[in-house]
């Protein structure tokens, strides 16, 4: 059992990370110990990152305890870089976190400063001067490299920077040389934000938190109008919308809505979010109130203008798309599906269920097989997801139907039969091992119609002879209306 992390009081007592717990108790008998929980630590870091979204949409993780915030173009909204740094550190400190933060033009330089110079803001071009007096452990290059540099008499980052790059590379590798260069402000490694940057963002900050449904809905409607105005300038419409609600206690709730067609009207956005909020299993809880509401369009498309005065189909498609969007907002987009035909003769694979919002146009243009007039349907209206086995006491071989079968503990006597329709499996996908099916349309004495098949073929026997099924299996695959 080793020390995983510790606070400043434990450090002053002479403890360090990696020290055996027994040794730590010998040094500090009054030590208070908690079991390390890396999963909970990661969850907490994710929660803090969600809270930091109120300052910038570009937030990246630096495991196990760090965060990167790209505040380019955002600092002036909070009174400048110094004020923003104080807001972030002060808010986290009040919640019981020990915070170390710094601002620099490169992410590696800022991270290096946080380890030994918290609260420092480095101007562009002064990175090398700022990190030079720091110990080499601040680079976070690993214990082996840090020990090797110290054995070579290089104790600070400035000492290492005075050496030629090829000397450092030959001894410690190119990755460490790149890390050192970034810390000195010579280039930068791009951060990887947790969330992709939305195409459009509008938000409303409140000096006094809001908590009533009426005020929240009113502000969400105002944000929808602002978002539509911003998108309209570039001729775009929203396909995915995200509403984020930032509570004063740091909790963040994001509600997402997808649309089948680009949305260009504020009232449509407002209606979709009303449907979504009303259908939430976990209602939106304002707690002590929201101090920020943000509406973003994370996916947009160019709006194609259509002739709407003469073409009635355009209006019908718009109404159908709007209806699908409203139903999807209430019960979920994955539950509203359309069916597309597939180029296969295997019955259970002939239809593909896809999300209606994203494939409505394809469904409207799908070419389904035409039904022959005055002929019964070749396929049942209800097809089981998985064929259900039936018991057949005897059948006519080699190609005949059963005379009687038992399904779900009910025995059915066959009155009328059509078939067989022989369907072989796709040998090019199954190495020729798939059995051959013979399908029959069957009506029993009660007038119920079934679609059953024989899985496999009987051995060669004299025609019209009744034999036991043996290894051949029978299934019911669907029901006719």
From TrEMBL:
<dbReference type="InterPro" id="IPR017961">
    <property type="entry name" value="DNA_pol_Y-fam_little_finger"/>
</dbReference>
<dbReference type="InterPro" id="IPR001126">
    <property type="entry name" value="UmuC"/>
</dbReference>
<dbReference type="InterPro" id="IPR050356">
    <property type="entry name" value="SulA_CellDiv_inhibitor"/>
</dbReference>
<protein>
    <recommendedName>
        <fullName>DNA-directed DNA polymerase</fullName>
        <ecNumber>2.7.7.7</ecNumber>
    </recommendedName>
</protein>
<keyword id="KW-0227">DNA damage</keyword>
<dbReference type="Pfam" id="PF11799">
    <property type="entry name" value="IMS_C"/>
</dbReference>
<dbReference type="InterPro" id="IPR043502">
    <property type="entry name" value="DNA/RNA_pol_sf"/>
</dbReference>
<comment type="subunit">
    <text>Monomer.</text>
</comment>
<dbReference type="GO" id="GO:0006281">
    <property type="term" value="P:DNA repair"/>
</dbReference>
<feature type="domain" description="UmuC">
    <location>
        <begin position="8"/>
        <end position="114"/>
    </location>
</feature>
<feature type="domain" description="DNA polymerase Y-family little finger">
    <location>
        <begin position="201"/>
        <end position="307"/>
    </location>
</feature>
<dbReference type="Pfam" id="PF00817">
    <property type="entry name" value="IMS"/>
</dbReference>
<comment type="function">
    <text>Poorly processive, error-prone DNA polymerase involved in untargeted mutagenesis. Copies undamaged DNA at stalled replication forks, which arise in vivo from mismatched or misaligned primer ends. These misaligned primers can be extended by PolIV. Exhibits no 3'-5' exonuclease (proofreading) activity. May be involved in translesional synthesis, in conjunction with the beta clamp from PolIII.</text>
</comment>
<dbReference type="GO" id="GO:0003684">
    <property type="term" value="F:damaged DNA binding"/>
</dbReference>
């Amino acid at each position: 059992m080793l020390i995983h992390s510790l606070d400043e009081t434990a450090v002053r007592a002479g403890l360090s990370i990696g020290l055996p717990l027994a040794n730590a108790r010998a040094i500090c008998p009054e030590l208070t110990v908690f079991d390390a929980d890396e999963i909970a630590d990661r969850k907490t870091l994710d929660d803090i990152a969600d809270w930091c979204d109120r300052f910038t949409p570009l937030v990246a993780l630096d495991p196990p305890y760090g965060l990167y915030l790209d505040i380019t173009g955002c600092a002036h909204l909070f009174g400048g870089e110094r004020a923003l740094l104080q807001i972030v550190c002060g808010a986290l400190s009040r919640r019981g976190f020990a915070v170390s933060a710094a601002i620099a033009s490169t992410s590696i330089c800022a991270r290096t400063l946080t380890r030994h110079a918290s609260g420092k803001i480095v101007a562009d071009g002064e990175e090398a001067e700022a990190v030079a007096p720091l110990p080499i452990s601040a680079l976070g290059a690993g214990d082996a490299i840090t020990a090797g540099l110290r054995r070579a008499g290089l104790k600070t980052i400035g000492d290492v920077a005075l050496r030629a790059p090829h000397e450092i590379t030959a001894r410690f590798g190119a990755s460490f040389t790149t890390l050192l260069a970034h810390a000195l402000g010579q280039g930068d490694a791009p951060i990887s934000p947790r969330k992709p940057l939305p195409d459009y963002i509008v938000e409303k900050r409140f000096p006094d938190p809001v908590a009533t449904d009426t005020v929240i809905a009113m502000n969400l409607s105002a944000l929808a109008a602002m978002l539509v105005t911003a998108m309209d300038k570039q001729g775009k419409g929203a396909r995915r919308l995200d509403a984020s609600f930032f509570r004063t206690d740091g909790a963040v709730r994001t509600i997402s809505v997808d649309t089948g067609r680009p949305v260009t009207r504020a009232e449509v956005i407002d209606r979709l979010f009303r449907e979504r909020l009303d259908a939430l299993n976990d209602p939106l809880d304002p707690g002590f109130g929201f101090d920020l509401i943000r509406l973003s369009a994370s996916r947009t498309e160019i709006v194609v203008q259509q002739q709407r005065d003469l073409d009635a189909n355009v209006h019908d498609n718009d109404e159908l798309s709007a209806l699908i969007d409203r139903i999807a907002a209430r019960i979920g987009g994955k539950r509203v599906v359309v069916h597309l035909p597939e180029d296969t003769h295997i019955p259970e694979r002939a239809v593909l269920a896809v999300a209606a919002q994203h494939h409505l146009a394809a469904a409207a243009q799908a070419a389904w097989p035409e039904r022959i007039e005055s002929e019964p349907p070749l396929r049942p209206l209800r097809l089981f997801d998985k064929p259900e086995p039936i018991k057949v006491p005897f059948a006519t071989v080699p190609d005949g139907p059963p005379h009687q079968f038992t399904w779900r503990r009910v025995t059915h006597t066959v009155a009328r039969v059509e078939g067989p329709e022989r369907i072989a499996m796709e040998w090019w996908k199954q190495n020729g091992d798939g059995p051959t099916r013979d399908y029959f349309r069957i009506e029993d004495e009660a007038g119920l119609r079934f679609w059953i098949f024989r899985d496999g073929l009987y051995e060669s026997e004299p025609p019209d002879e009744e034999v036991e099924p043996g290894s051949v299996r029978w299934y019911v695959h669907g029901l006719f209306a």
